[in-house]
Design goal:
Layout (H helix, E strand, L loop, with lengths): L1 H22 L2 E9 L4 H12 L4 E7 L4 E7 L5 H10 L3 E9 L1
Antiparallel strand pairs: 1-3, 1-4, 2-3
């Protein structure tokens, strides 16, 4: 009986963990950056963005100078992004964000 109770409790805990992740607010940022020219540049920015908790997806369009970032449960502000890109050797221009 104790084993059945433990399995049921584990199932409830896992279900709550999955539900919390599913309900997490996801924000997609489209960030305009000057100076993106090569994949190595993109790697440096990706590395910095991955240091931020809750960032789960990063994509870069080098031709357009657009970095797309998807995150959950956090908001990336202009000052934070400006510093991040400046530290990476690029110029942050603007961002748009949409809730997903």
């Amino acid at each position: 009986m104790k084993n059945i109770f433990n399995k049921g409790l584990l199932a409830v805990v896992l279900l709550l963990a999955v539900a919390q992740t599913a309900l997490a607010a996801t924000t997609v940022y489209s960030i305009r950056v000057d100076g993106l020219a090569c994949p190595y540049c993109a790697y440096g920015i990706e590395k910095k963005l991955n240091e931020i908790d809750s960032v789960k997806f990063i994509d870069m369009d080098l031709d357009k100078g657009i970095v797309t970032v998807e995150s959950y449960n956090i908001k990336l502000n202009d000052k934070q992004l400006e510093q991040l890109f400046q530290d990476s050797g690029f110029t942050y221009r603007s961002k748009t964000e949409t809730e997903k």
